[in-house]
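Deliverable D4.2, example record:
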Amino acid sequence: MEKYEGKWKLEESNGFDEFMEALNVSAPLRKLASLSKPKQFIEQKDGGLYIKTTTSFKNTELFFKLGEEFEEKTGDGRTVKTTINLDDEGRLVQIQPGTPEVSITREIKDEKYVMTLVCGDVTCTRIYKRHEK
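Output generated by the structure prediction step:
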C-alpha cells in the first residue's frame, strides 16, 4: 500500500455531476462540489491506511484496516458500514452498502492515482496527480 502514500491533487474528473445526481445530491451542492479541486493525503499508520480529502468547502477523513468493516460518514452525508479490500491487482476496492450501493476502486496507473466511483449504472473517474511524496 506504500504506492498510495503521498499528497495527490485532482487533475481530471469525468462523470462526477452524474455520479452525485445518482446519489440524490442537490443541484446547488453538486455545482459547488464540481467546482472544487480536492487534494488527498494518504499515509499508512496504526496498521491501516488514512486518507484525508480536503476541498475549499468540505473535508473528509477515512481510516481503515483492510478487510475490516468500519462506519463511514460519506461526503454526501450518508452514514454507512463499509469495507475496503485489496484485490489481486493491487487495487483498493471499497463497497458502501445501502440504497444506493456505491463502489469505489482506487488504483495507481501510469504514476496517477485513479478513483473509479460506481452508483447503479453511473460511473465516475477521478484522476489525481502526485503533488508530493
